[in-house]
Known about the structure:
Residues 131-196 form the HTH luxR-type domain. One of its GO terms (biological process) is regulation of DNA-templated transcription. This is Response regulator. GO terms for molecular function: DNA binding. The structure is a single chain. By secondary structure, the chain is mainly alpha-helical. The protein folds into two domains: 3-106, 3-Layer(aba) Sandwich (Rossmann fold); 124-199, Winged helix-like DNA-binding domain superfamily/Winged helix DNA-binding domain (Arc Repressor Mutant, subunit A), CATH 1.10.10. Helices cover 52% and strands 7% of the residues. It has a three-stranded parallel β-sheet with strand order 1-2-3, with helices on both faces. Strand 2, helix 3 (69-77) and strand 3 form a beta-alpha-beta unit. Helix 7 (140-150) crosses helix 8. It is globular.
Amino acid sequence: xxxxxxxxxxxxxxxxxxxxxxxxxxxxxxxxxxxxxxxxxxxxxxxxxxxxxxxxxxxxxxxxxxxxxxxxxxxxxxxxxxxxxxxxxxxxxxxxxxxxxxxxxxxxxxxxxxxxxxxxxxxxxxxxxxxxxxxxxxxxxxxxxxxxxxxxxxxxxxxxxxxxxxxxxxxxxxxxxxxxxxxxxxxxxxxxxxxxxxxx
Length: 200
């Protein structure tokens, strides 16, 4: 009901569990999937991985609550383009769908940082070392862009902050995705956090 209230959005299918979600994506070829986490038969984590493994897969936004942080983190690693809380206001839900459909990730800065920092446990030093190793070879400018991206800024915001055109920012982000071997902006933000870049 919320999604179809927007003139530029259309719901092509609704399903009750993750297993059916994979079949529905194959049948209807949507541009984007809103994925719940807790579902019968196949949960949203497995369904996200399965959907993202399909040829020319749709983008995935995970719907969650704070008590499911671990599932969300793993879903993001599996290729989800972002997440929204289940109590997200309707207008923000629609805005989030449009942002992800346009090719950007839903990086709600405060919530994303809270989620990522949830995993700052005893193995942090190992993860920090591994993340830092992935960032070797970045130029100073690429590192600056990565830091701003890690704080949840859009390409336009990064451009204004670092005094460069949005097109130049997009080029840097593309190079970062390639050099860091990340699937999307959310994964770049996770690496930036784990490498300690956001604490400086």
